[in-house]
Amino acid sequence: MAGRKQKDSGLHAPASRQRSAEDFDLIIGFLGFWALVVLAVTVWMEVTGQPALLWAMGLLALVLGLWGMVRLRLKLPARTARRPR
């Protein structure tokens, strides 16, 4: 289909922003899940008296990444449409 030209009506720009926001939501959820897992492991390591410094540093990295992603997500426009089924 190299010979065909697609007509650009500008309708895809909001959809790409919509998808970008959904990608941020997925990443935020992924980071949030692992932050909770690492928090539980860190607390367990502290309670049992095992070294937990590396787990705490990993938790710090996850929380900072989560914070940065939430700040970036807030700059995107709010989602107004739902996915088509």
Cα-based radius of gyration, to the nearest Å: 20 Å
Termini separation comes to 27 Å
Listing every helix as H and every strand as E from the N terminus to the C terminus, the arrangement reads HH
Helix count, DSSP H or I runs of 4 or more residues? 2
Portion of residues in beta strands equals under 5%
Helix content: 55-70%
Number of distinct beta strands: 0
Largest sheet: none
Task: Give unreliable regions as ranges.
Answer: none
The SS-based structural class is mainly alpha
Global shape: elongated
Mean pLDDT: 82
Question: How would you characterize the overall build of this protein?
Answer:
This protein has 85 residues and is mainly alpha-helical. The protein has two helices and no strands. The longest helix has 36 residues, at 12-47. The two termini are 27 Å apart.
Task: Please specify the SSE layout and strand pairing.
Layout lengths: L11 H36 L5 H23 L10
Helix pairs in contact: 1-2
Question: What would a concise description of this structure say?
Answer:
By secondary structure, this protein is mainly alpha-helical. It is 69% helix and 0% strand. The relative contact order is 0.14.
Characteristic terms for this protein:
single chain, 85 residues, mainly alpha, 2 helices
